Amino acid sequence: DDKEEDENEEEGSCSQQNRASRRKNYQRTNSDGKKAGEEGSRQREKGKKAPTKDQKESENKGRKTNKKEKEGENKQKTDRKNSTSSASSNSSDEESLSEEELAMLMEQVEQKKKLISTMRNKPWRMAKKLSVLREAQAFVEKFEGALGKGKGKKLYAYKMMMAKKWVKFKRDFDNFKTQCIPWEMKIKEVESHFGSSVASYFIFLRWMYGVNLVLFGLIFGLVIIPEVLMGMPYGSMPRKTVPRSEQATAMDFSVLWDFEGYIKYSALFYGYYNNQRTIGWLKYRLPMAYFMVGVSVFGYSLMVVIRSMARNANESTADGDDDHFVFSWKMFTSWDYLIGNPETADNKFASITTSFKESIVDEQESNKDENIHLRRFLRVLANVLIICCLCGSGYLIYFVVKRSQTFSKMQNVGWYERNEVEIVMSLLGMFCPPLFETIAALENYHPRIGLKWQLGRIFALFLGNLYTFLLALMDDVNEKLAEEDVVKNITRWTLLGHHNSSTENGSAVTPPPLDPADVPRGPCWETTVGIEFVRLTVSDILVTYITILVGDFIRACFVRFVNYCWCWDLEAGFPSYAEFDISGNVLGLVFNQGMIWMGSFYAPGLVGINVLRLLTSMYFQCWAVMSSNVPHERVFKASKSNNFYMGLLLLILFLSLLPVAYTIMSLPPSFDCGPFSGKKRMYEVIQETIELDFPLFVAKIFSYVANPGLIIPAILLMVLAIYYLNAVSEAYQRANAELKKKMQMQREEEKNKRNNKASTNPMLQDLEDLFTPSTKNESDSKQAEDKKTESPNKTSPVGKQGKAPVLPGSPMTGGRGAAFTPPPHVLMTQPPILGVRPPYLGQPRPRGLPVVPVPGRGRGQPRY
Amino acid sequence: VYRLHGRYHEMAPNVVPMDYTKDPDVKLPMQLIINMPELKENPFRERIVESFSEDGEGSLSFNDFVDMFSVLSEMAPRELKAIYAFKIYDFNTDNFICKSDLEKTLNKLTREELTAEEITLVCEKVIEEADMDGDGKLGFADFENMISKAPDFLSTFHIRI
Prior knowledge:
heterodimer, A: mainly alpha, two-stranded parallel sheet, about 75% helix, globular, disordered C terminus, B: mainly alpha, Recoverin, domain 1, membrane (chain A), transmembrane (chain A), TMC_dom (chain A), mechanosensitive monoatomic ion channel activity (chain A)
């Protein structure tokens, strides 16, 4: 690098001088028009240089004895001398040189400078470079002085230095940025061992973590912390107090584990929040904030998902003609020459091998074709089977949820009955994917497509389960709502009764406040729903981790250590090591995220739990993968963009938005818990805020905007815009495809042209070769022709004889290009070839004749 | 350059003189060069050194040494790198990358973990993809055409020292 910098600096200073001198020259002569012709005249220049070089060499010898590592100093020295010595020579030169000579000199100097600046790009040996460089430098140095002094050299050098520093800084900054990406090394390591598809899962996980972190910040910063800091403390009002009947067991672990007791009445759940319009000295409007955060969680997620989808789509279209040189690039550019660490090198070797295998699999897949009918039948069969499975699991869940509602009405139910729903769902999630995988084996898709199908199916399973779960929950909620009405009355009555009794007892005394724990309260369905989601999430986490621990780690340990004393080879045989199940894991993640989105409105703490989960699972799964999984037998490459995952995520986001929106818009909130208690619908909080906190005209505007007469046209407009944009993008796509096709055609054409050239060139050569000796043979062939003409009716044998000396090496009759290689003189040395020919003689060969005279005529018709 | 010289010197302190003012003619054998940490893990280290050495045997004079690292530096232009990359991958130095060269490259890249069929398949694919003139091997024009479109050639083909 140092060297380069040296050179650079020098170039810089040189060109600076150069410019200055040129300027001067302009003033003097204005005869600069020849510059354009310079390029071509380099060779000539060399000849001219020769004499001057010698002079220079001798001049500079004193200074230039140093070798290249001294060059840096040298240059400075020479620069300095330049200014001094040239000044002296300057005067004499200037007088003696005429204008034209000066122009010539100028040209030469320019030339040299160009040479110096492009020196580095020439594939010469260093020794040659050095000598040429030195020569050129000396030349420039000598005559630069004659033409003018470098001005502003210092400024220029300073500028150069700054530019270099800036570049370096940018590079460092980039390095820093890549270092800041969390888990990059871990993921790369996994990638090198397991291929890009497994790594894509981890990248997805990381992305998910980022999104959740933002959501977590939003919810904690705007809802939970204000409530904890400024809201009324625990125990101040009924909704923030554990009821009397539960207080005895509220701290028990088993109760807490079910998210009852103290946890239920904490800021983690909807029910804890108060419906006070403003809290604290900041007049923080908590209900409003709660509502807005709930909405913006969805808004933000939607935005992020769509944006990353769009970016992925852009990326995938950006590198369009990637697929021409897949193998070549892999072959020649995959090794990173920077690698100097044995471990990294190992990884790199592994990853290169994997990537080769991936492409080989791709290639083989594309070349395969088999019995289509059988395969179609199998695919249909597989789909039918899978649909059966889906329906079965959906019904099972519905059944279980229904049953659990009856259980919940009974008093003393066991642990199993209470957790039946979660257990059944987890079991389904555990056993259905492998079942699908077995069924999918029937279909025999390419692994990448197979993965998509598999994902789609599991997704359908999860979705079905989730929605049956939701429906059952909705039933539950409706029941609770009915119950609530009853409780409302009771509460009023008790309060009234309390009042009455107190007023009866002591007339003047204000009634002693009822202890908040004693107030009868409604079931608060929002909290119930929230608890349900939290439980589901937690049980999901546990099941995932336990599966990994048992299914992968214990199995791996068992296989590894029991293998020494077992009757068959465990590693190769039945249990073997587990593979990393990408589809299951991705789906688990997506599904989990859906639950988070749905549940976060009812249980703000859920996002926090999820962040913890993602964080641990990153480390845990990385570890599990590296320690106890084996790479897939059929390694395959992840599709370029993980838009498929994103699509799933978007779908589930939308689907989880639906129930939340439904509850917000059309279910009445519970009357005695949560930030929206006392309102008919949750969204009324917005209207309230607008009416009370904003000036009147805003409310007016709002009411206009909310008018259906305005909303419907707006929606129509949007639909039209979407339609238009869609049409435009389609047109672009078509144009793109067309262009690509054209390029492809052009390539082919070029290839063909080159092919032709390549094949015609040697042909011509050969013909020329043929030509010269054939003139010698002219007489022979003439004779032959003569003979032929003499006896045209004497059919082939004669003709053959006549041709024999002319075309000895003529397997040419076959028209092979290869036949060109034996040029005519071979015929002199190898007449015996004739002996081979006779077998043909018997057969009257029509083709034989036209070929014969070819060299005789002296013109090789390129019929081959 | 100083740093380079330092490295060069340190590989064989007894052979290489500290100052080059007297222009000595010293060469280092390949064995020493390829044990540099920068090259030690490189599967093509022998080829790299060979293609930069003036005598083709793998021993480098200091000039060659500087040459090598200037080509492999970040500042070197793409064309120059392509020329030397071609030299490196051309194992039998016949100015074409032919099948045997490709096979060698592949074996070095994957530590011979691919089966024979896979190797032949890959080699055939490479030739099919990159061979523009249809002569069954890659000339420099083919190679340059291919490499100039490769996205990460520049980023991978350099050594920082």
